[in-house]
Structures are given as structure tokens and as C-alpha cells.
Amino acid sequence: MERIYFDHSATTPVDREVAKVMLEYMTEKFGNPSSVHSFGRETRKAVEEARSSVAALLGAAANEIFFTSGGTESDNLALKGIAFANRKKGNHIITTAVEHHAILHACEYLEKQGFTVTYLPVDENAMVSVEDVKNAITDKTILISVMFANNEVGTIQPIKEIGQLAKEKKIYFHTDAVQAVGNCHIDVNELNIDVLSLSGHKIYGPKGIGAIYIRKGVKIESTQHGGSQERKLRPGTENVPGIVGLGKAAELAKIELDQRISHLTNLRDKLINGIQEKISDIKLNGHKEIRLPGNVNISFFYVEGESLLLNLDLKGIAASSGSACTSGSLDPSHVLLAMGLTHEVAHGSLRLSLGRGNTEADVNYCLEVLPQILERLRSMSPLNANSKLAANNPCSQCDHH
Ligand code: PLP
């Protein structure tokens, strides 16, 4: 059976060119970049070249890029590093209700350390309002952290405007751009971004490597202590294969960006339009236009996202659901709830995230099997008023309402 991967927001395959250069730096070129001999010098050079490639993708200077173990670490470093380094100035942080848990849980930790966090609401499209950000600012605000693009519903936030506001008020502005890098044009100067998180495995690079952009002059302290690697901000022997892999992935992303955006936008719109034409009782989640080029997130009424997911998997299609049932939690996605969806509608949501390897044939295949799966699930659904089962079994598909 053909297998189709529509879960690129979870992770992407490593580009073969990326894997090739990584192998070289795992086998022949294995020196520690801190060593003074030729083995060390060759890996040091590779690390610095990778730093330049990541910087170039963001319009940053190379010395404003620091390598980390991924998006989660970059987010934690941004929040905790800035909070602790600036606590004399103030203890207030502004973020949004739809951030990734790497941000939300780091904020909860900071609240326990005496910081106050404002979690801004979003509208029905998961969009935060610049006016709300403005109104939340107090004389104690030291940091605003708003994600660039949402990992579940794809909505792209008004980053430039929030950055401008932060700049005027002399407050640091961090953005979690894990989903946006490689999918959107990003220039940290044009967008007034002070600190940015990115991750290797979302841009056809390896897992367990990421980077943080920190504008020159931003006061931030390390959250881990050790040697003098990454100018003491992130000590520990560098993950050289990961770093060169990320550097290559960044290089490719820069070259292919326009092509990736147009390819993904085309497939995304084809998929959304096709689903809207073929299936009734659905709701597109996220902003209609201002969304990630490869993100499709739809709630299908009367069905469970999990059953949809399993049925798609049986047909060879890998997707993701908006509820967190598979991770052992009974709660639907905090993002969908923050957008005002009811628990029932949120539970019926499906995320299809497209990548550069996907084709029109993949989309057509999905448009062929999805309506069939839905028809079958809905005919059995106790949530569906037209279902035969509905009258006498209120909740057989889902035991946690
Ligand atoms: N932030 C966002 C928006 C994400 O989508 C992810 C990963 O899904 C992360 C942070 C965490 O990145 P990593 O998996 O590299 O730790």
C-alpha cells in the first residue's frame, strides 16, 4: 500500500544532502571543535559555517545565532534566560493562550519563581490582537513572547506589529518560529524580532538540534553551566553532526523558500477546497489566508479525530488530530478551545500538514478516501443526529464526554 505523509508539522524527513554532510562529520571529521589541532579546527570551521547559514536564513548576523538541542530548549532559554537576567527591571511576561507547551510550561515554571504571566486570548481564527498586547503592557513588563505561526491550526500572528510595539516600549520580543522557519519569509530586523527559536527537524534537518537567535545587546543569562561553548550561553560539546545538518537544511530552505511556499500553498488550497466540496458539516480551523502554507486543520462534526486518524492510517495516510487523546490526556487541544470551539467540535479535528515531498496525487488520494471514511464513521456516530445509533447510545465512540 502507498504511504502518504501528511504530518510535517510533527517532523520532516532529513534531506539526503543533509544526511550526507552529517555522516561526514560523524565519521571522518569527528574532532571536538574546542581542540586546537587540525581535527578540531576543521569541525570548528564547519560549525561557524553552519552558524552563518542559519543567520542568513533569518537576516541575522552569525554571532547572534547560538545552537541548542531544539525548539524546546530555545524556548526555555529565551524565557528563563531573559526573565532571570532582567528581573531587577520587572517581573511581567506577556504571551498567548495558544503557544506550544515549551512556552506555556516554561511560563508556568516562571510563575512559581515569582514572575507574573499574562496569557492573551485569541479570536476565532487563533489570531492575537496587537491592541490586546498593547493593553497588557505594564511598567513591569520585560518580555513579550508570541509564536510566529501556530503548530496546530497554522495561523500566522501579526509579528511585525507586535515587534514594533515592543521596540517602542523597550520590551524584549521573542517569537517561537519553529513552524514558520523554512515556510515563511523571516527577516528579524524587518520584523522587529529580538529573540527567535527554531528547530532542525521541522526543516528537513535532524532531530535534537535547534538554534536561538539573540539580537546583539539583549540581556540574557544561561540556564546551564559548564564550559565556554556557544560563548558560555549554552555550554557543552557541540553536536557537530547536528549543527552541520541544521546549517545545510537552512541553506536549502533559503534557496528553495519561494518554491516551497508556492508548492505547499497550492496543495493546501486544493486539499481544503476539495474537502469543503466533498464533505458537509465541517469547520476549517485557523485563519483562512494568513496561515502556514502547508497547514490544513479541519473539524469534522459528529466524529472523533482519533477514529479518523486510525482509519486514515489504515489507508496509508499519516495525519494528526487536534485532541490529545493519544498522549493519554482526555482534554482536547488548548489551541482549539482557546479559539472557542466546543469540546465536541474540537475532538473531531484533524491536522494534515503538507511538505515539499507531497504531490497533487497525494492530495487526490486523500480526497478520495477521506469522504468514504467520514461517511462510514458518521453513519455509526452516536454524535450524529441522523445516525441509527444516536438515539439509543449517546456516546459509544468516545467515553470521555
Ligand atoms: N514550538 C513549536 C511551535 C513547535 O511546533 C515545536 C515542535 O513541535 C516546538 C516548539 C518544540 O520543538 P522541538 O521538537 O525541536 O523541541
Automatic annotation (TrEMBL):
Keyword entries, A-Z: 2Fe-2S, Cytoplasm, Iron, Iron-sulfur, Metal-binding, Pyridoxal phosphate, Transferase
This chain is encoded by the gene named iscS
Superkingdom, according to UniProt? Bacteria
Show the Gene3D superfamilies listed in the entry: 1.10.260.50, Aspartate Aminotransferase, domain 1, Type I PLP-dependent aspartate aminotransferase-like (Major domain)
Organism in which the protein naturally occurs = Pelosinus propionicus DSM 13327
* Required cofactor names: pyridoxal 5'-phosphate
Q: Which NCBIfam families match?
A: FeS_nifS, PRK02948.1
Q: Which family does it belong to?
A: Belongs to the class-V pyridoxal-phosphate-dependent aminotransferase family. NifS/IscS subfamily.
Q: Does the keyword Iron apply?
A: yes
Residues that, per the record, bind [2Fe-2S] cluster: 325
What name goes with this protein? Cysteine desulfurase IscS
Residues at which pyridoxal 5'-phosphate binds = 71-72, 151, 179, 199-201, 237
Which GO-annotated molecular functions does the record name?
A: 2 iron, 2 sulfur cluster binding; cysteine desulfurase activity; metal ion binding; pyridoxal phosphate binding
Q: Which InterPro entries match?
A: Aminotrans_V_dom (IPR000192), Aminotrans_V_PyrdxlP_BS (IPR020578), Cys_deSase_IscS (IPR010240), Cys_deSase_NifS_bac/arc (IPR017772), Cysteine_dSase (IPR016454), PyrdxlP-dep_Trfase (IPR015424), PyrdxlP-dep_Trfase_major (IPR015421), PyrdxlP-dep_Trfase_small (IPR015422)
**Pathway it belongs to?**
Cofactor biosynthesis; iron-sulfur cluster biosynthesis
> Can you supply a Gene Ontology BP term from the record?
amino acid metabolic process
HAMAP family of this UniProt entry? Answer: Cys_desulf_IscS
Q: PANTHER family per the record? A: CYSTEINE DESULFURASE, CYSTEINE DESULFURYLASE FAMILY MEMBER
Oligomeric state and interaction partners are given as: Homodimer. Forms a heterotetramer with IscU, interacts with other sulfur acceptors.
Per UniProt, residues of the Aminotransferase class V domain are 4-364
Q: Where in the cell is it found?
A: Cytoplasm
Keyword Metal-binding appears in the UniProt entry: yes
Q: Name one Pfam family in it.
A: Aminotran_5
